[in-house]
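Pasting two entries for a bug report.
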Amino acid sequence: NLSNSPVGDTGPEISPDGQHIAWLHNVTEPWIMDTDGGNQRSVTDAIAAFGEPTWSPDSKNLMTYCNNPDDLTVHGFCIIDVATGDVQFGYAMEFYQVEGLSWSPDSTRLLFSGEQISGGTDLYVLNLKTGVATNITNTDGDNEIGTWSPDGTEIAFVGNPITADNDDDPFANLYRIDPDGQNRELLYDPLSLSPAHSGPAYSPDGKQIAWFCSDSAPSAKDICFNDSDGGDLIDEHTDGDAGFVAGTNPDWNFTSGYLFGDTECDGDLDATDAALLLQNAAELEAPVECFEIGQSHFLNGDHWFYGDFNCDNEVDALDGLFVLRGVLGMPMTSPDCPVVGSSADVFN
């Protein structure tokens, strides 16, 4: 229990740099804390009603739906500087409800699900430079939550099919669409229809989409993993009777990043560099001498072979990836052997 608060805490989101969690405290107050639950604090002293916040890609700002601190009758979006608490209001527009905010990877656009006061929910892309919001789904009665692909070239979303009467097929299917609203494509239609579905989340490499769905049975609490290219079901995990909130995305989050290159500065990527990475990433007592092919050693009481894991007759940094996977259970963003000086991100 991180917040341990008597008031409502909703919409948690880990910052892209893995250092903080932002959430909505006491219905209308954006707060942040360290990822271990420490140093909890309000982000701003501005008097306004804020919605659930989302991080900018550089982890320096939060975007929320809000009313204007200078004129509480005007609604729109606020950018909050996390370091100073300053609030910049802009992009005034009236919605009955806004959720699923998602900042584009290049920080130029904002994706959100907006419900008009007159009824009907659609996905919108707000250009943060021009202040123009474009309805990219534009279908009656849809309930849609979406997110950007890691490269920002497409949007995956969960919503209704385009039919004359959406009541027969509520909030069930997985789609892909271009940021300008073109090329809408059905990726996956679960076997069991249920209105309790969430928005999707791309894996860091963009190859999979995770979302809460009801594929195994009506109202089942499944976490589905689909191929982002063809939509095929890759895997499905059933979470028993554990509940989830419709509209809440699963979250593949960045947890740490380490230099993955010539750590010892000798001009080569070898097992010594991999051992240093292992030691730095997990604070393990990893030896730093270069191991010969087939050699092994003890690590935290366990016996691990540290040698030519990929059978290329060399002990190099690529073998270190196998050590990270085997010892720590950490998948890496790329299976390729990085060049000297390159970096890789470690994801949870």
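Entry 2 (this is the one that rendered wrong in the viewer):
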Amino acid sequence: MKTDILAFGAHPDDVELSCSGTILKHISLGKTVGIIDLTRGELGTRGTAEIRDKEAIVGAKMLGISFRENMNFADGFFTNSKENQMALVVKIRNYQPEIVLANAIDDRHPDHGKASKLISDSCFLAGLSKIKTSDTNGEQLPWRPKVVYHYLQDRYMKPDFVVDISEFMEQRTASIKAYKSQVYDPDSMEPETAISSKQFMDSVYYRALEFGRIIGVKFAEGFVVERIPGVKSLFDLV
């Protein structure tokens, strides 16, 4: 069950909107990637949890990920509790990711910041040998990801690094549009939300364009780090 990258999202569509280009790129490089959504997004103004379940399946197929799961935490009301931490510890130890991608550390939607801390804390706890967990295969061994990177969401934050996704922008956009109930649809009769306008979709495009411009490529996605990353050579940096 070992995977290279495990991406978490507080809601289905968080990952597609924020780091799907990075996922597509690393899958093309032969890396294994999975997604775990914390909630079904059942409090969303548009659509239903059942519709979003189906959209998440479509999004996963478009990305070509190895698996997608949902923790069924309470949308809007989940907390950074021992119960939720232990549930994530089991998943982290099961999939043994080298890299974890997590929600923005601070954002307009309070679930994003809560998820960010919950995921980060769970990654640390998963490495403690005195915390005992088990799954269908028996007792689990401790596992701590090498790094946790936080993708950027609604609020602008200066990224610590950006990833060139120029080759994957079209696929990235298609995976976002898999969430037809949530994003811009001129034929929809549902109430407009913060992410359902054409302006929002334009902002997603132009942010990737801007992050790309600052490193001399067409499109890029930005991330914030928890600890200073190291490189073996100055030539590892662009």
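Dev reply: Rendering is fixed now. As a check, the viewer should reflect this: The radius of gyration is 17 Å.
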